[in-house]
TrEMBL record:
Source organism superkingdom: Eukaryota
Transmembrane segments annotated in the record for this chain: none
Protein's name according to its UniProt entry: High mobility group b protein
Protein species of origin: Thalictrum thalictroides
InterPro entries linked: HMG_box_dom (IPR009071), HMG_box_dom_sf (IPR036910), HMGB_plant (IPR031061)
Pfam families per the UniProt record, alphabetical: HMG_box (PF00505)
Organism lineage string: Eukaryota, Viridiplantae, Streptophyta, Embryophyta, Tracheophyta
DNA-binding region: 56-125
Residue span(s) of domain HMG box: 56-125
GO CC entries: nucleus
Gene3D superfamilies: High mobility group box domain
Region of interest called Disordered, as start-end residue ranges on this chain: 1-60, 128-166
Compositionally biased spans, kind Basic and acidic residues: 10-25, 33-55
Amino acid sequence: MKIVKRRGVVKKDKKEALKPVDDRKVGKRKAAVKADKMNTQKSKKETSADKDPNKPKRPPTAFFVFLEDFRKTYKQQHPTVKAVSVVGKAGGEKWKSMSSGEKHPYVVKAAKRKLDYERLMNTYSKKKEVSMADDAYQESDRAKSEVSDEADEEISGEGGGNEVDG
């Protein structure tokens, strides 16, 4: 019987010895991690504020170019259907059933829109670089004026101190 007790004690000791120290405090740490994640996530308003409204929109893919035409024809054929999901599902099924030859005009239109987008992005990025350079120049002017203002204050402060003493 002593052997059984020892084995029981040994097994408990082994289990405790095998457990890492971190496992004992898991509950507290998990709660802290969740709180950190909630604090680091940005709200929708904060993320939308970061976007530049002047930035060009990305071009649609060939499928979305196809959907533009498909929606018009589908609504003419089915005027009672109001759900967007139904139109989207029907468009997806139609797109999958089309051959590459039938998809070709949409692929060409999408490629043309992509080229236009790239041109717009090049001009946008150049304008942005120029405006950032102007901002940096203005900030350096401000910094210089702040330094000179502080120096003027120190000089006038010394002169004012002499008048009070004298």
